[in-house]
Specification:
Helix content: 40-55%
Distance between the termini: 22 Å
Number of helices: 7
Strand order of the largest sheet: 1-2-5
Strand content: 5-15%
Largest sheet: 3 strands, antiparallel
Oligomer: single chain
Radius of gyration: 16 Å
Number of domains: 1
Structural class: alpha+beta
Shape: globular
Length: about 190
Amino acid sequence: MPVRNEMPTPEEAALVEKLLGRPAKLPYRIATRCGDGMPQVLQADPVYQENGRWKPFPTFLWLVCPRLRYEVAKLEAAQEVQMFSKRLAEDAGFRERFVEGQKHLQTQRLALAEEIAGNPLPDDVHSVLSATNIVGSRSMFGVKCLHAHVAQTLSFGSNPIGDDVLARVGPCDKSMNCRQVLPPRSHGKAKR
């Protein structure tokens, strides 16, 4: 599924702030939407300026759909992060698909960073964005947060962890009430 790259309306920006439980710290666009049109995944800028220097922000995809966040948080509470870590270690085909997806993500993230900060990127920024996975881990096989893997699958595809999680929790469609806003802390950690 291609990234939509849509700027939020003022109403959507207010909804996103409510979903996150705080204002977004970085500029973002709407990458994907739920079946009812609500923002589902946000794509933040993978670089930002601080004290006149560009800084990397590798965890640039944020899952904001309340239903998906709630369902994914239940899987995390059931120790599914550890299960996926074990699967990456033991299942060569799964691991190969995961690495391929992370390399695709790194390419997309670097291209976006270069659009924003210019090419070439500062060495330290390039190093982080080219060496980390979707959760910001320098270990290619760091799973850490299932929400981020789902956000990658919804935005770019090519993440077997996100694929597996979505197969279990089901996609958002028009019949679901994804607009129901739950308090941010009741359905997993608020993602940036």
